[in-house]
User: Fold this.
Amino acid sequence: MGSRASTLLREEEIEEIKKETGFSHSQITRLYSRFTSLDKGENGTLSREDFQRIPELAINPLGDRIINAFFPEGEDQVNFRGFMRTLAHFRPIEDNEKNKDPTASEPLNSRSNKLLFAFRLYDLDRDDKISRDELLQVLRMMVGVNISDEQLGSIADRTIQEADQNGDNSISFNEFIKVLEKVDVEQKMSIRFLH
Amino acid sequence: FERHFSIIFNVLHLKISDYATHSVIYLCCSSLLFPGLIQREGGSMEQEMGELRRYRTQSISRGEFALSDSFYFYRKGLESIVDDQVTQRFSSEELVSWNLLTRTNHNFHYISLRLTIIWGLGVIIRYCVLFPLRITLAIIGISWLVIGTTLVGFLPNRRVKNWLSELVHLMCYRICARGLSATIQYHNKNNKPQKGGICVANHTSPIDIVILANDGCYAMVGQSHSGLMGVIQRSMVRSCPHVWFERSEMRDRHAVTSRLRAHVAAKRNLPILIFPEGTCINNTSVMMFKKGSFEIGGTIYPVAIKYDPRFGDAFWNSAKYNMVSYLLRMMTSWAIVVNVWYLPPMTRQEGEDATKFANRVKSAIAHQGGLLDMAWDGSLKRDKVKEEFKEHQQKMYSSMVVGTKARNSQEPHTESTKS
Assistant:
């Protein structure tokens, strides 16, 4: 009479994921059920098609970018660990975490890691700079066919001009952080998980 | 006698189910099921964008795009990956308390010896006592349907034939319902569908037909099958008109509509039974109604069907189970407990198109049955979502970017280098 979902996920794995991502035990098992329900091929990994089967994600203008974020460089499948690691970026920041372990590495859901996640969704070629072209690509995805190339170009130019401080006509990660320093990233880039 | 037995049985079952729930809570099982995995926050796109852009101290006329705009889409996207409203409708509902059926046991771990013993007893009762009884009844029911309708078909006289045909149909469906241990409660019988009308209902499983036909006679609409189903269909048609389509005919919408219209126009024909969702949904929500049924004309009699999930999961997940294994599962559940509400008849109003009318009927059914009213199409079970929805989102967002562009065109641009 054991539960079918948990028997495939060993206790040690749950502990490791807990340490790495900060999710609680029950959240991990529930997310594992979700993972298996998305995994139509039942091979323990998700492919891009599995994500695209979610209608609400398919109609999201930036859906493809988000799906990409789950897959490591050049790979087509993501396992449960990778799935959780990406989801961990959207875990809300809790106050008591700051006291836990000052020597441990920064948790995945810290403010700067959340911003790094968003930065990487713009910076496709991973050169640590958002170039004009990369910005235009994302803009184009968000507005579809409703805005002309010229208008979009000038919007992109304006945005880079505002953010750029060292004059290289692109936005580095530090410039990105500076522009968004007043945005409530903790709230806007977090999902409220129920225990 | 059977009525009393089923009442006692139901009461007993509820008591056991409550006990199981309490012992679970008492033992603080960490994987108690909750209705949702996340709490969705945030308002409309406009609201969220407004909040995200609040930090901008520059005037709005300098362009409405902010790097943080994309955060809205990221969060929405991640929320839908964790828990989305649509794909969960195509699999069985998760229950808050366990009803001693392994098939609804998703996240429960092994709890206690007592519970296992009770569960074991339940298995014995269900498989060894209830199941053989039900199978016998089902076989009797179906064979009587075939034999009875064929016999009635030989009669020439109109009135006697109709009366006899109704009798035969009702009897068979009642036997079949007993074969599933179905306890049906009909509400508002005064709104029952009349001859020459169209009855629409939400669809959870093929058993819906048995449930509705227990209380009245309907003309069925559907595809003609081969094999056992085909035999049943052909014999049913002998005693009173049903509408069976060949597979090729179904694709031609006009042919379908005109045939149904002809059936409805003949006022003496039985009301047609249609399930406008087009596919089985898991009884927690009502998905988009296909407008085809609402273009036929005539009076629509909406019916809401709600199964009680504590006694058995009635949803037919056609991707996971075929018809036979589904029926076997039904016959080894505790019982099927259903509430059927007959809603007052509706007709299409002046200037209302078929889609609006369909949505109006859908809301009424969802409201009565306590189901979620959803605009998503049930065919998303198998098909991809239409591009239009994404384009709609893009259009909404563009209007937020372009918003004050009219003002901007007067400002001189000094930086307009195109690389």
